[in-house]
What we know:
Order of helices and strands: EHEEHEHHEHEHEEHEEEEHEEEEHEEEH
Number of strands: 19
Number of helices: 10
Helix content: 25-40%
Mean pLDDT: 95
Shape: globular
Radius of gyration: 21 Å
Amino acid sequence: xxxxxxxxxxxxxxxxxxxxxxxxxxxxxxxxxxxxxxxxxxxxxxxxxxxxxxxxxxxxxxxxxxxxxxxxxxxxxxxxxxxxxxxxxxxxxxxxxxxxxxxxxxxxxxxxxxxxxxxxxxxxxxxxxxxxxxxxxxxxxxxxxxxxxxxxxxxxxxxxxxxxxxxxxxxxxxxxxxxxxxxxxxxxxxxxxxxxxxxxxxxxxxxxxxxxxxxxxxxxxxxxxxxxxxxxxxxxxxxxxxxxxxxxxxxxxxxxxxxxxxxxxxxxxxxxxxxxxxxxxxxxxxxxxxxxxxxxxxxxxxxxxxxxxxxxxxxxxxxxxxxxxxxxxxxxxxxxxxxxxxxxxxxxxxxxxxxxxxxxxxxxxxxxxxxxxxxxxxxxxxxxxxxxxxxxxxxxxxxxxxxxxxxxxxxxxxxx
Length: 416
């Protein structure tokens, strides 16, 4: 017998759980389904950065040429596994078009509005949680091992000023005061005043517990098989654990969203971008803020008693294999910037698939094709940062309210 639900959320990562929480705040009866476990995919062991400063989309002027150079090196920050795949070819072509100044500027404005609102909500949630998920808003520090890289970083920082993002340039001596364990070749750094960090798995699970106490139901190991439609309405969601009849459906399935939407005849240009992390025991003296190892595109984030190294983008499809060369490249990058990291005991090596759109912007909108479907996916590396505001916007869309952030330009129809 089919289960009748008010709102069915597909996906229990950061975006799905945040959506369920804010929907429940509105008094909606919410059921969340996931083919895995709560927060068990990309939300589990990522960098945990809440980067107020990170408003420049991945596609930007100059990135395409770097990407072409990097794609032939399996250890590079961005690696595209060579394969004949029409969806990938189309994605790369769209990505190339987005690597221009006008799309970048538009994307910066949209991301700035989203992340500014999300940071405020993160603060509110952290005030409820106390120390439950190691939330800290002490800023972050980008360090540079080349003068050329530092100069580029200063130019990027100057671009952030008009958006209200505060940064401070530090010379080598000033970097040493903040971070004594840097290597000799570090030439300078840029401090991002408003950045924050947390433990992502603890955050998602804490919020899921809050949602559960508000009446949200979670059904894990539940895979979407197909849909039944009535006109422009999704009438039934068929899963391996039975059928769900929902008044409202929210798609928040991350890298699995294109496959699910394909069952409805909708193409979403999202590529799974594999990222890696290495979690180690915190060395002494412990770091207090996240560190960006800028030229290597690796981050180092303290999370209570652990330290996490994270980085790389690998476009290899829905592939969960661990490429040891890429893991080794992260370790090598950490050694090149920071002293004493080899002594840390490794606790876990992890990989996750981040849902990346070709323009670097999420999809947050009511579907143009299905009247009772809200799409909330494609957040790339910012699923944790943008989770709360996305969840609030989903609840507002479900209630037919005016979104608190202008969503123009974030619908799936922009890719048609």
